[in-house]
Amino acid sequence: MNLDRHLLRLAGRRKVALMLTIGLGTAGGIFTVFQASLLSRTISLVFLGVSSGKTSLEQLPILMALLAGAILIRYAFVWGSELSASSIALHIKQELRDSLYKHIEKLGPSFTSEQQTGELTGTAMEGIEALDAYFSQYLPQLALAAIVPVIILVFVFPIDWLSGLVLLLTAPLIPIFMILIGSVAQTLTGRQWQTLSRMSAYFLDLIQGLTALKILGRSRAQIQVLEQVNDSFRQTTMSVLRVTFLSALVLELVSTLSTAVVAVEVGLRLLYGQLAFEQALFVLILAPEFYLPLRMLGARFHAGMAGSAAAKRIFEVLGRTTDDGRPQTADRRVLPGSESSDCSVLRLPSSV
Q1: What is the tens place of the pLDDT at every residue in 53-85?
Q2: Full residue range of the structural domain in which residue 283 is found
């Protein structure tokens, strides 16, 4: 929980860009509704107009032009939202990397000598880069997954309250399964990051001590140890991938079955004349779009977990202080010949 607050505080520094990202994504969701409305109207006009013998299709070119414009505007909003999200991640990573380097420099050699160089380097490089998916994908999608389905429900309920009720009741199933599987994925992702950190530390230590190992004739013996470390990381990574694929399968299955329920009840009422063709088609087009933000949230949740696991170690380093509560500074050495060296240099007797 504290980790999430730290990450949200970093995102809060880019509040304008974050609001722009969410706003553009929301506008894209609204134009998704307009696109579905225009598409259902166009198809209804073409098929029902031709089948009933009507030849007055003067509105068709206008509807087609409006539909093309809605599609282009929608994808322009989506592209702008992704571009803004990438900008947020880029600036936060740069600020966090500068803060981490400066803090490590303030802590001085007494801190770095206690740490494994490879692990600390991996935290400063790969760890901060892993936060890209969290800020550019997961965090904006978290807001859009709550906003866009509500917008779709606002348009669906006045047209077909029964389909809106089905969407409303089936929507919580995706977050429930995401939370159940996500807890396991979070544990495995943390273990994967720890294994990667240990492997990086061991590999760098091995490279630095390679000369001594060759002199002692122990360089070839480290090959087996390195293979064991590599195999451990491979098994941990495969465990994360298995859970990720399982999560994707469950979310796709839930959304597909929910869309099928909407399609069945809409089709039956359309068959018995209780629902107009244009309204039924409008609901059917919007049903997959309703579940899409929730499915994308589940996929991007796993992408952001690697960043969360790395952020835990980053904030541990940033929160490191000395016993007196202040960051430890590097030792200042007094050079011979300076004015302050008179207090530390032994003077010889004048008789010598």
Answers
A1: 554 567 788 888 999 999 999 999 999 999 999
A2: 82-319
